[in-house]
Amino acid sequence: MASASRAQFSSRFGFILAAAGSAVGLGNIWGFPTQAANNGGGVFIVVYTLMVIGLAYPLLVAELTIGRYGQANPVQSLRSILPSGSRWLGTLLALVGLTAASCILSFYAILAGWLVGYFLSPILEAIGLTGVSQWLETFSIGRNLFLMLLFMWATIHVVKSGVAEGIERWSTRLMPILVLLFVVLIGYIFTQDGAVDGLKLFLIPDFSQIHPALIHSAMGQAFFSLSLGVCTMMVYGSYLKKDANLPRTAAEVALIDTAIAFIAGLLILPAMFVAQNHGVTIYNDDGQLASSGTLVFDVLPAMFDTMGAPGYLVASIFFALMVIAALTSSISLLEVPVAAAVEELSQPRNYAAWTIGGMISALSAVIIFYFDPLFDWVIVASTEYAQPILGLIFALLVGWIWHRDQVLAELQKGNPAIAAGWFWKIWPVYVRVVCPLLMLYVFFA
């Protein structure tokens, strides 16, 4: 167990914003709206919400509980819930989780760097630096390296400052700004021709479009959007005070994450139809998004270009929003290996943040130099394989290996009456049986 002097979030509100910031990322603002646009709009929201409740939320409680019980980094936390003869397995699982988080950050930093470039580009264009503006939007090794390093510097700067002074302070600043920028942009987009068509697609469900592929997409989106399976929520849970009500806290994090995804849909789908009204191709002949993977880099900038002078401001605000979302996720990803280095190797936090951040930046640089063979491979290996497999194993550990009385005792510290409530009657069996079966379906489908 960690010492009593270990860093903690100073308030439950700070934790909720930090954990929600970890969950809120490009998956919400980019992935969720494009998934909705490709899968029937409103009906996708209904299925996605059911998957958050039925899959993501129970697993989020499990990871937070492991972390707070251990009051330490994932290596110690996972070891603490295993029998003495098999604690090596906890070390192995934690190392795989640390590696997966680092790999996700390595490609995430490249994507986020592009967003930084698109944020700066319209500002530079407006003041006459057209050449620099075009360079920031043009794919090249030099541009990719520069922007990746700029984003990683910001991530390291936050993480090196610690839990309360770094992660919590910046999360409580950035998350309200994120919501404010959303409100401003939604208010603007709703004044444009074509926005109502996108709003109708997003809000009116067509249940005739429910099919296995839609259910699979919603399930995967719900799982990945809450940062499950790579120890980030385990680390954040370890910084929680013992009097926090874990099921309620997890519900609040899941609610904020889902709300941000919904708000992103209110922005992106109407914006797509506004772009279509300006002559930008959105859907191809078979009804699928023409550029779902590059939506924010192709379709939306094309729309901003048609707006004239106001387009520069709108583009900068939109990409500022994207950068903030990416940063709140990247700091949680870097915190996973940094927390382990600080506690397992007794490294000073400042040194650990710069050293590990530098190593991940080096991995990002390798991906940039060998982009075609490595970029997609790292994404698939870390998010489609490592993340769901680890999430499945964590569910099995909590459901089958960790002693039931210890789990209950940990949950009772924040809610003494929990044993008599409906949550404890359902959740242990649900995590033991239902969650693994659902995750196996997601993985093998």
Describe this structure in words.
The radius of gyration is 22 Å and the shape is globular. It has one domain (12-444): Hydantoin permease. It is built from 18 helices and no strands. The protein has helices at residues 12-23, 26-38, 42-70, 74-80, 87-126, 130-136, 141-159, 163-189, 195-203, 212-225, 232-238, 246-277, 295-305, 309-344, 349-369, 371-401, 404-412, 422-444. With 445 residues, it is mainly α. It starts with 11 loop residues before the first helix and ends with a helix. The model has no long low-confidence stretch (mean pLDDT 85).
Give a brief outline of the structure.
The chain is mainly α and 445 residues long.
Helix content: over 70%
Structural class: mainly alpha
Largest sheet: none
Q: Mean pLDDT score, rounded?
A: 85
CATH homology group? Hydantoin permease
Quaternary organisation of the protein chains: single chain
CATH architecture designation: Orthogonal Bundle
Subcellular location: Membrane
GO cellular component, one term: membrane
Main location: membrane
Keywords: Membrane, Transmembrane, Transmembrane helix, Transport
Notable characteristics:
single chain; mainly alpha; globular
SSE map:
Layout lengths: L11 H12 L2 H13 L3 H29 L3 H7 L6 H40 L3 H7 L4 H19 L3 H27 L5 H9 L8 H14 L6 H7 L7 H32 L17 H11 L3 H36 L4 H21 L1 H31 L2 H9 L9 H23 L1
Helix pairs in contact: 1-8, 1-12, 1-14, 2-10, 2-12, 3-4, 3-10, 3-11, 3-12, 3-16, 3-18, 4-5, 5-6, 5-7, 5-14, 5-15, 5-16, 7-14, 7-15, 8-12, 8-14, 9-12, 10-18, 11-14, 12-13, 13-14, 14-15, 15-16, 16-18
